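Morning run. Coffee first, then this:
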Amino acid sequence: MIQTHDSLNTLFQALADPYRRGMVDQLARGPASVKELARAHDMAMPSAVKHLKVLESAGLVTSQKAGRVRTFAVRAQALQSIDDWLAGHKRALNAAFDRLQQLMEDEQRAGKP
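And here it is:
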């Protein structure tokens, strides 16, 4: 469980930056080179490389090098732990609302305002 929390923390930290989220959005549409990512986000190559290293170390993207070109792709399965975390919270919230609705219906049947 602690490892799950640590990996979620790492994922959320990586996604906290708007440039990195933009890169993930772009990569969700297909692989791209560092140069393409840097140009699309109006940043210098060294800055793009730093952001991509954070995303890669979080497990959100993978890279391949062919000659002098490094191409990145998103790892969709990396987002599954975030999906699972959100789904658990959504279930708990829905259960709380269901209990509240039941309480309100019980009070209405009992004639309480």
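Helices lie at 2-15, 18-28, 34-40, 45-57, 80-109. Good start to the day.
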